[in-house]
Amino acid sequence: MNIEVRDADRSEDLLAQVYTALATNTPVLIQGGGTKSFYGRATSGALLDTRAHRGIVSYDPTELVVTVRAGTPLAELEAVLDQSGQMLAFEPPYFGEGATVGGMVAAGLSGPRRPWVGSVRDFVLGCRVITGNGKHLRFGGEVMKNVAGYDVSRLMAGSLGSLGLLTEVSFKVLPKPRSSLTLRLEMDVDTALVRFAEWGQQPLPITAACHDGEGLMLRLEGGEGSVKAAREHLGGEEVSAAFWGALREQTLDFFSNPAPLWRISVANDSRPRLPEGAQLVDWGGAQRWLKTDAAAATLRGAAAAAGGHACCFTPGAAESPLHPLPEVLMRYHRRLKEQLDPQGIFNPGRMYDGL
């Protein structure tokens, strides 16, 4: 099946909009499909829509590298990769049909495979960015000069559009696994956490591990022989792989609970003392999804005590959705923002107040 990819370079139009914003000192709200607009603090400004700037600039399956414009629909990119038996290994969530490549990078969110292969940031090779100085610059890839020693291309991942207008990104892609199956094992969460630690010391082809509150879900991927051997070793019942897509897109029944949703990131072998609430343990214990009405300070105290952090995924449920940074890290954020966006026009306050 051939995938029709619409190609349109609108970088000059985007640059002109940034020039206008700089000349009038008008904040801009950078947005693609808007499927992740709930994430981070609410901000305002003149809408700068990236979706017209789309298309795959280059793709060489033999080199495992693809370069794509920021407004390209994420579904379109993944369909093209799938034709060559390849994938974005970090399993980015869509949260809606309109998800774009730029929004994926800006949000920096990864799916169930993240602990085993890496995050969005780990697969970004380079990018082009329109800065708050009105320049269209290339970072990473073949050109290795970066601002003040920062690896700007990777810093764009998870920056929520606060550092500049992303126009183009180059990614490392990986071959899709030859064999994959999903197992369900009946055990409680405490036993599962012990098993995660044990299995981490063994050569098992695990690429996803989640306790849904009732049982343990495991995904095995790799060569047919290794997957078969692991399946015989681990036991359990083979079930549908659709679970992982529903987990990634937050469409499991767990997420329908009306209480605010928090993501607690901790070491996978930690035992954080979290407030009472419905909990789903992902990433082999490193990511805890928690539905609770507990105060933000209580949650963040518990996460920090376990060496982690807590972010709120429910709009309006916390004054600062992202975990507050220590002052020394905040100074680095401010310095970087000042160099790339000196007038502070890009998504002001989206990550933290004053950024």
Automatic annotation (TrEMBL):
UniProt-listed Pfam families: FAD_binding_4
Cleavable signal peptide: none
Stored Gene3D superfamilies: 3.30.465.10
Highest rank taxon of the organism: Bacteria
Domain FAD-binding PCMH-type, first and last residues per copy: 1-176
GO molecular function, one term: catalytic activity
Keyword list, A-Z: FAD, Flavoprotein
SUPFAM superfamilies: FAD-binding/transporter-associated domain-like, FAD-linked oxidases, C-terminal domain
Record flagged with keyword Flavoprotein: yes
Transcription regulation keyword on record: no
NCBIfam families: PRK11282.1
Descriptive protein name: Glycolate oxidase subunit GlcE
Organism: Thauera humireducens
Lineage: Bacteria, Pseudomonadati, Pseudomonadota, Betaproteobacteria, Rhodocyclales
